[in-house]
Amino acid sequence: MLDILACPIDKYYPLDLFELASKGDVVEQGVLYCNRCMRFYPIIDEIPVLLPDELREKQKDIEFLQKWQQLPEKVIKQGKPWHL
Ligand SMILES: [Zn+2]
Q1: CA quadruple 83, 11, 31, 18: dihedral, nearest 10
Q2: What is the per-residue pLDDT across 38-77, written as a single tens digit (0 to 9) for each?
Q3: Ligand 1: centre distance to CA 42 (Å)
Q4: How far is the CA of 4 from the centre of ligand 1 (A)?
Q5: How far, in Å, is the centroid of ligand 1 from the Cα of 23?
Q6: From CA 64, how far away is CA 59, in angstroms rounded?
Q7: Span from the CA of 32 to the centroid of ligand 1 (angstroms)
């Protein structure tokens, strides 16, 4: 399923997947990352949250990044629309 997801901003795909917690083949927590526009999209409770910037909640995204500091630096320190 993740193979067909595209970035909502520039339609780029495939998105990079970083797994944070998984059960079997199911990614429960993770991040999808667009190599074109550098945006990250959280996967929360198995649901990829692919929202345009104006519908994202900055505080929630920041808390997500703070919780998962093992994510690559390009997500934590340079990801868009915001980063730590
Ligand atoms: Zn993109």
Answers
A1: -120
A2: 999 999 999 999 999 999 999 999 999 999 999 999 999 9
A3: 14
A4: 14
A5: 27
A6: 9
A7: 10
The CA-based dihedral angle spanning residues 1, 55, 78, 73, taken in that order and rounded to the nearest 10 degrees: -50
Is the overall model pTM greater than 0.85, yes or no? yes
- Torsion sign across C-alpha atoms 4, 22, 45, 56: negative
Tell me how far apart the alpha carbons of residues 12 and 35 are, in angstroms, rounded to a whole number. 8
Q: Give the Cα separation of 39 and 50 in Å (integer).
A: 10
CA of 80 to the centre of ligand 1 (A): 9
The alpha carbon of 38 and the centre of ligand 1 are apart by a number of angstroms equal to 6
Nearest 5°: the CA angle 47, 23, 39 is 40
Strand stretches in 1-84, DSSP E = 16-23, 26-33, 40-44, 47-48
